Amino acid sequence: MQIYWTKINQIIDETPEVKTYMLDCPEGFTWEEGSHTHFALKGFNAEEKPNRSLIRHMSISTLPNEKSIGITTRIKEECSEFKMILRNLEVGHEVAIFKTHSNVPLKREDKNVYLLSAGVGLATFRPLVLDYLERNDNVNQIHSLNVDSSRAYLFTNLFESAPDKKFTTQFVDNRKTYYDEVKKLASDENGLFYVVGSDEFLVENIALLRAEGVKPEQIMLDKHAQQLPNFLTSEVTI
User: Fold this and answer.
1) In three state form, how does the secondary structure of the chain look?
2) Which of 20, 92, 100, 232 has the fewest Cβ atoms within 10 angstroms?
3) 115 and 226 co-located in one domain
4) Could you report the per-residue pLDDT of 181-231, keeping only the tens digit for each?
């Protein structure tokens, strides 16, 4: 396993609670849209066994052509040790990234794509939308639906409806409105439904989509292949 140590080159305050840490691209480091990585703080590998409290699984919110690796995360006033350390890091400080992989690249199968997310989960979809807007081959259209009770919506400059590019967006501030909208979207028998959020959020979305007749193979999750059956065979209802 290769560990890439790199430096923070910019910290962007996206909202009062959400920051994006822009990292230098180490030589030889590559990724694609929809990628996640293991993001670690100094000292995580100082002992014989990795200190897992200093490691988090994070989505990369940028594309390679942006020349920086973006890590977007919510840091609340009361937070974990990891987030407390992260909040105090500054430009020039070192962090590590390793085990980078994409479970949710943009599928180009001449279908409608629906991006369903909660809160900062939208960061996973930012690169997919950028990739689509740069090259819309073999994608009929994309619709993004995000729920965030804080109403401090992310990336509103990018997630702005552009009907001429067959890209539409919707932000809502409560789960009831959100699930009402998901139910409408699920009427698309051939659509591809990407879902990003907490495990509870995934289970709720999958239960609704499956109840509306959406097949498991139409649902894309940011999970490793071996984890998918745990979610896609769920019988949980909402």
Assistant:
1) CCCEEEEEEEEEECCCCEEEEEECCCCCCCCCCCEEEEEEECCCCCCCCCCHHHEEEEEECCCHHHCCEEEEEECCCCCCHHHHHHHCCCCCCEEEEEEEEECCCCCCCCEEEEEEEEHHHHHHHHHHHHHHHHCCCCEEEEEEEEECCCCCCCCCCCCCCEHHHCEEEEEECCHHHHHHHHHHHCCCCCCEEEEECCHHHHHHHHHHHHHCCCCHHHEEECCCHHHHHHHHCCCCCC
2) 92
3) yes
4) 999 999 999 999 999 999 999 999 999 999 999 999 999 998 766 777 677
**Same-domain status, 76 and 115:** no
Whole-angstrom distance, CA of residue 116 vs CA of residue 67 = 27
Q: If 0-12 CB within 10 Å is exposed, 13-18 middle and 19+ buried, where does residue 28 land?
A: exposed
Are 122 and 203 in the same domain?
A: yes
Half-sphere exposure of 191 (CA within 13 A, CB side): 25
Domain count, the chain: 2
Same domain, 115 and 46: no
Choose one of 72, 102, 132: the last residue of a domain: 102
Same domain as 84, residue 53: yes
Does residue 237 belong to any structural domain of this protein? no
Give yes or no: residues 158 and 98 share one domain.
no
Q: Is residue 127 domain-shared with residue 205, that is, in the same domain?
A: yes
Q: How far apart are CA 206 and CA 235, in angstroms?
A: 9
**For position 117, what pLDDT does the model report?**
98
